[in-house]
Amino acid sequence: MHLLLIEDDLDLGRALQGALKAEGYSSEWLRRAADAPRSFHGSAVDCVLLDLTLGDGCGLDVLAQWRRAGHMVPVIVITARSALQDRLDGLDGGADDFVVKPFATEELLSRIRAVMRRHAQQASEQWRFGDLMIEPRRHAAQLGTEPLALSPREFHLLLELAREPGTVVSKSALSHRLEPLGDPVDFASIEVHVSNLRRKIGPARIRTVRGIGYLLAV
Asked: Helix (H, G, I), strand (E, B), or coil: what is residue 23?
């Protein structure tokens, strides 16, 4: 999972990036509202941690711009503002969750997992698609009662498709999501990994939408 952190506090930003890395997440850290992306099309970002009080603007304005543009990326607001109206403004403004500083890192990580479960329309840490089960935190999957021997790349690919079940994910998006901090994965490699994954989970589970990308059938 790749997260975008928008936070102007140096100490908190460093601490959060360290905690995310320890959890196995990659992240990008920005400190200004002006540097926030205007679009998430083709982006590798799975979730945003957004501070409300930034040195050059308000995080709520950034969030409002994303939602007006139709971007549905999950957003967790992190802020020192604890008033009820601030929480209501954040949630009504399109935030998926609201965490008040100071907070325990373990709580934030748990909230990230919960938000991502809801985004994938899953009720627990075990994501189920018929007899296919995925456990993102354990990097494990099984078909029926049999564990699946997936390479790290195959598991990552399966997880990215499972985040939007029944929805086509373009090859371009997958190429960035599989290497969010490096060079995009070339399309030929993606095709090879998809072919290998189909052999292991069944060819009908991953459908090709010609000229666009792939979807996980549910």
From this structure: coil
Q: Calculate the alpha carbon distances from 128 to 39, 123, 135, 163 in Å.
A: 30, 9, 9, 11
* SS3 state of residue 133: strand
Q: Which residues pair with 87 in a beta bridge?
A: none
pTM, two decimal places: 0.79
Q: Which of 140, 162, 175, 141 is nearest to 216 (CA)?
A: 162
Which two structure tokens, joined as six digits, stand for 169? 């994910």
Could you give phi then psi for residue 200, rounded to 5 degrees? -90, -30
Sign of dihedral through CA atoms 51, 53, 55, 58? positive
**Domain formed by 127-216, architecture:** Orthogonal Bundle (1.10)
Annotation: CATH topology of 2-119? Rossmann fold (3.40.50)
Rg of the chain, C-alpha, whole Å: 18
pLDDT one-digit tens code per residue, 48-81: 999 998 989 999 999 999 999 999 999 999 988 8
- Joined together, the tokens standing for residue 183 give 């060079």
Going from N- to C-terminal start, the domains of the chain cover: 2-119, 127-216
Return the pLDDT at 85. Answer: 86
Residue count (the chain): 218
Question: How confident is the model over 78-134, as pLDDT tens digits?
Answer: 988 878 888 888 888 899 999 999 999 999 999 999 999 888 888 888 999 999 999
